[in-house]
Specification:
The complex is a heterodimer of chains A (404) and B (302). Chain A is of the alpha/beta class and 404 residues long. Chain A is built from 18 helices and ten strands. Chain A folds into two domains: 200 residues, Periplasmic binding protein-like II (D-Maltodextrin-Binding Protein, domain 2, 3-Layer(aba) Sandwich), CATH 3.40.190; 194 residues, D-Maltodextrin-Binding Protein, domain 2. In chain A, helix 9 crosses helix 10, helix 10 packs across helix 18 and helix 17 runs antiparallel to helix 18. Chain A is globular, with a radius of gyration of 24 Å. Chain B folds into two domains: 45 residues; 238 residues, MetI-like fold (Orthogonal Bundle). Chain B contains 13 helices and two strands; from the N terminus they run H-E-E-H-H-H-H-H-H-H-H-H-H-H-H. In chain B, a hairpin with a 7-residue loop joins strand 1 and strand 2. Chain B starts with a helix and ends with a helix. The chains are: A alpha/beta (404), B mainly alpha (302).
């Protein structure tokens, strides 16, 4: 009897073990600023459709997202799939951390449903495809129509106009001798390279990889320095201001313009109602430059079950699910059908995004880009703003970084 | 009979000889594994070119990383800040801690509550402290500016953390606030070990309060103070969490210290070879303090 019970238990255990091995688990890393994110709902929907796959989705804080991802890859504890941005791709490819998805992509019928050109834009440095786009944004200029109207100003379309407008908007509104409103909320901390790039990289023949130390290139950085040091149109805290600070100051009416993307549109409308609008960034040095803010998902080469990971990431870039995903991040869907039925953002912000698309650019597909974003740009920009170094020196350092 | 009585004695003495080692072994093994092994690894990495996103490229470069560090402007800026940081934070903490301890040693109602409350800055996590002070210093909404403006001490809000002239000083103030309870508690313990009879004898001899402090209190707590200063020097030198959260080393290099620079190089730029070299150089500098501390504790033990 005892023996029978034992064998019974043993066979049940063996059966369970057998079932467990047929199942696979996908560990997925992502970053959402939004506290009430719907990842749980997406995971539940996916698991219902794919009962043999379990998804463990983990929200990693944005500030250390890539530090953690790189170290996890090196430490052999990388997730199976992760949300990734273009600037990180060259480095991840160099590390051999990504699994190519070309073959799966060829067989996936959802590929045709994606916005045109996105697959092309996100191709890897070696010509293989690793990234599957999941959302996108384009940076544009936020401004306060009420303040513009009050002062009889129009939205600046060139850098010269921008400077004059910003100066006019910087004022002491209650007569206590303190500046209450600043013309532009400049992001001097990590992530602010897009602001600087708008004023610098629009010029003919200037990019991060060439012409940065030319007269036109240095003039761009000088322009930013002058706006802060001479014109005083940025808040004094600009050198240290990050995302929270620039958005907070704009919502609080401390700044009259700033540059960000549609992701913050709803929060701004909530705070300011109709007193916030958007337009493409001004043209500087004879050309336009704004950042194409990408976000993709990728399967890691160390994935235990790459097929399952691929299934999960395609699920996120499929009609309906892509809407749910973007409702959480406040960005724009990459699936055509989802874009057409998109109602999450007021039309004026979608329009500013669409108008900015023709000149939106991405950072170079180079392994130096990560250092540029994380340390070289913020440190040198802060040194220029605080008068520690000259603009020419900053541009020379960045050029040197990309030349290595 | 003799034989029987000797064996347990022999056993006991053997046991007494082996037991300490046996009991220390786990702690020593753990320390070796989590402190000494990474230390050796760091020293080994510092002699190589090792950039984490090129995991297969681990090239021996000898002392090149050290040479590069000594020629690196940022290394010297960070070293200067580290020295300023240590030479101001610790005396400030000590002084504030001493005053607090002397106050807490007086008889007054609610003394136990005051003693418990004073420990709060020390008990809070560094990240919480850093975020709290970032808000205090905020140039738009911060209470520091609001207070000074209302008092008429400043005319314009000062961006405390965004101005390179005030950023380091602002962080030093934060650290002083965080660390003084440690001194207060240590010195308070020292104060309580001074027999009351010394003071009674001194006052019979007509010694003033200052004389009593100088000749009885200070010698009585000097040992505790010395140990606390040395310990705190090592902790403060190594700590970068508050700076990292408050400014990330910025604006520019205005609040870079050596441990922070090593961390940024290794963790953000993934240049572990160079980051390790900076860490090793800093360890060597700190070794002077450590040797002094070890000598002191050795003396105290003997």
């Amino acid at each position: 009897m005892k023996f029978k019970t034992l064998t019974g238990i043993a066979s049940t255990l063996a059966l369970c073990a057998g079932m467990a091995s047929a199942d696979s688990t996908v560990r997925f890393w992502y970053h959402f600023d939004n506290a009430d994110n719907p990842m749980d709902a997406l995971v539940a929907a996916f698991e219902e459709a794919n009962p043999d796959i379990t998804v463990e989705a983990e929200n990693i804080p944005w500030n250390s997202y890539y530090d953690q991802l790189y170290t996890a890859v090196i430490g052999g504890n990388a997730p199976d799939a992760a949300m990734v941005k273009m600037f990180a791709q060259p480095r991840l490819v160099e590390m051999g951390a990504l699994a190519p998805i070309d073959d799966w992509l060829a067989d996936w019928d959802g590929a045709d449903g994606l916005q045109d050109n996105l697959i092309e834009l996100t191709r890897g440095p070696d010509g293989q495809q690793y990234y599957l786009p999941v959302q996108y944004v384009v940076l544009y200029l936020y401004y306060r129509p009420d303040m513009f109207e009050e002062l009889g100003l129009s939205v600046p379309t060139t850098c010269d106009e921008f400077r004059e407008t910003a100066k006019a908007l910087t004022r002491d509104t209650d007569g206590d001798g303190q500046t209450d409103v600043y013309g532009f909320g400049f992001r001097g901390a990590k992530g602010g390279h897009d602001h600087w790039a708008t004023f610098t990289l629009g010029a003919e023949g200037v990019s991060l990889t060439e012409g940065l130390t030319s007269e036109a290139g240095v003039a761009g950085t000088q322009f930013v320095a002058d706006l802060f040091q001479q014109d005083g149109v940025f808040p004094p805290s600009a050198p240290n201001d990050g995302f929270q600070e620039i958005i907070g100051a704009f919502k609080a009416g401390k700044t009259a313009m700033t540059i960000h993307h549609i992701g913050s549109a709803n929060g701004m409308v909530e705070a300011l109602g109709d007193n916030v609008s958007a337009a493409p960034v001004p043209e500087c040095g004879g050309g336009h430059w704004t950042a194409f803010g990408d976000e993709s998902t990728a399967v890691l080469s160390s994935a235990e079950d790459p097929e399952a990971a691929w299934k999960w990431i395609t699920f996120l870039s499929t009609e309906g699910n892509n809407t749910m995903f973007n409702e959480a991040t406040g960005q724009l869907p990459v699936v055509k059908a989802d874009s057409e039925s998109w109602t999450l953002h007021p039309q004026r912000f979608v329009q500013a995004t669409v108008d900015s698309l023709p000149f939106a650019e991405m950072l170079p597909n180079s392994s130096a880009t990560a250092d540029f974003v994380n340390t070289a740009w913020p440190t040198n920009m802060q040194r220029v703003l605080t008068g520690d170094i000259e603009p020419a020196e900053m541009n020379a350092k960045i050029e040197e970084l990309f030349a290595e | 009979m003799t034989h029987v009585s000797e064996t347990p004695k022999h056993r006991a003495s053997l046991g007494r000889q082996v037991l300490p080692y046996a009991m220390l072994t786990p702690a020593v093994l753990v320390t070796l594994a989590i402190v000494f092994f990474p230390m050796l690894q760091t020293a080994w990495m510092s002699l190589h070119e090792y950039v984490l996103f090129r995991p297969n490229d681990f090239t021996w470069v000898g002392l090149d990383n050290f040479k590069a560090a000594l020629n690196d402007e940022v290394f010297w800026i960070s070293l200067k800040h580290t020295i300023i940081w240590m030479c101001t934070t610790i005396p400030a903490q000590l002084l504030l801690g001493l005053v607090t301890a002397l106050l807490l040693n007086q008889e007054f109602p609610w003394r136990p509550v005051a003693r418990a409350l004073i420990i709060i800055p020390w008990a809070l996590p560094s990240v919480v402290i850093a975020l709290m002070w970032v808000w205090i210093y905020d140039s738009n909404y911060g209470i520091a500016n609001e207070f000074l403006l209302r008092m008429g001490l400043i005319q314009q809000a000062i961006p405390w953390l965004a101005d390179p002239d005030t950023a380091l000083a602002s962080i030093i103030l934060t650290l002083t606030w965080q660390g003084f309870p440690f001194f207060a508690v240590m010195i308070l313990a020292g104060l309580q070990s001074i027999p009351q009879s010394y003071y009674e004898a001194a006052s019979i001899d007509g010694a003033s309060a200052w004389r009593q402090f100088w000749h009885i209190t200070l010698p009585g707590i000097s040992g505790v103070m010395m140990t606390a200063v040395l310990l705190r020097m090592i902790w403060v030198a190594n700590s970068f969490d508050v700076i990292f959260v408050m400014t990330g080393g910025g604006p520019g290099y205005a609040t870079h210290t050596l441990p922070l620079y090593a961390f940024i190089k290794a963790r953000t730029n993934l240049d572990f070879g160079y980051g390790s070299a900076i860490a090793v150089l800093f360890t060597l500098l700190l070794m002077v303090v450590v040797v002094f501390y070890l000598k002191r504790t050795g003396k105290a033990a003997s």
